[in-house]
Amino acid sequence: MAPNETEDSTGAAQADDELRAERRRKAARYVVPVAVVGVAAATIGLVPALADSGDPDLPKITAQELINKIAKSDVQQLSGTVKISTDLGLPDLGGLESGLLSGAAQGGGDGSSADPSAKLTELASGTHTLRVAADGPEKQKVSLLESGAEYSLIHNGTDVWGYDSKSNEVYHSTAAGSGKADRHETPATPKDFADEVLKSVDDTTSVKVDGTAQVAGRDAYRLVIKPKQSGTTVGAISIAVDARTGTPLKFTLTPSSGGAAVVDAGYTQVSFSEPAASTFDFTPPKGAKVTEAQKGDKGDGITRAPGRSTPGQSAPQELGKNGFDVLGEGWNAIAVIDSGDKGGLPSGSASGGGDLGGFLGSLGDPVSGKFGKGTVFSTRLINALITDDGKVYVGAVDKAALVKAANAG
Which pTM was predicted? Predict the structure, then answer.
């Protein structure tokens, strides 16, 4: 204790810390629409790739032929290094935004720093380096490399392990069968993500082959997907496809507003050889705190948009299965969620002290219409309108589209 520091001041500081933590937890549920889909934008591109310079001379191929090549690709084994940069345009809140994202994604998780539903929210902003490996549907590993530390998520047969070397904590869940964990899955492969993107290809979408590229030393075709509809925040999706294997190697999503990519992720090195079997072995280190997944707690460790993995996927019936309504179609689809929280953003009394509602309101734009009043929270990709009657409208659409949907709803 410092010479002038008293026990009272220490207690007061702890109380302040606890109050701030409680406010962050309460705030988290009000930014779930933005946070969940924002994290989705980061995590769904875990294993695509960064392009090198050069445009290789490859045989001509049509968009449909390239789509077929992706569909027929059956790469089961790979390893490599991935770099992912995410710029959702989230405000700098001095660390609060990380707490909100983590709380929203964890959503009542088990409280371990090794829980992937909390840990992988770090990919929602900034630039990160990952090591990835896969050997069929039963063995995958993703390691997030940090300064002086590493976080690993390992799926091996019936076990899924998360390990945070910084805190020496371990998270463990067991598979429910068919290589699927009880609560957590390993991240989507490039082919998984490309398959989801290509589900959005309909009469609302333009698809073409736009030249070639060198990705991690491999020749690739560039497939470009663009919405035909106006009002969406999605500008274009570019997927670099390995010319030999048909494996998607690079994923870049740019917003309709222009500027830097929202997500630019990819291999800096990749191999399609079989990884060493020991890559997927894991035993909790001596002295590590091990947390077992809560029984009956279903859901993915990788947070995806409700009912659909990709902006533009026209599947309102899937949203309906998950308890959501959907307005519109294609890239303009808007999920409608009844949060049950009447009165809009939390007030001081609801947040345990302080004007949390005013704070969150300052991050959004007040709007009004036939629906009443509400607040729009925006990122460069996903916008969400929270109305005073507890409804949430969220989608990869602009603010005007959300207000129009709320008025119609």
Answer: 0.72
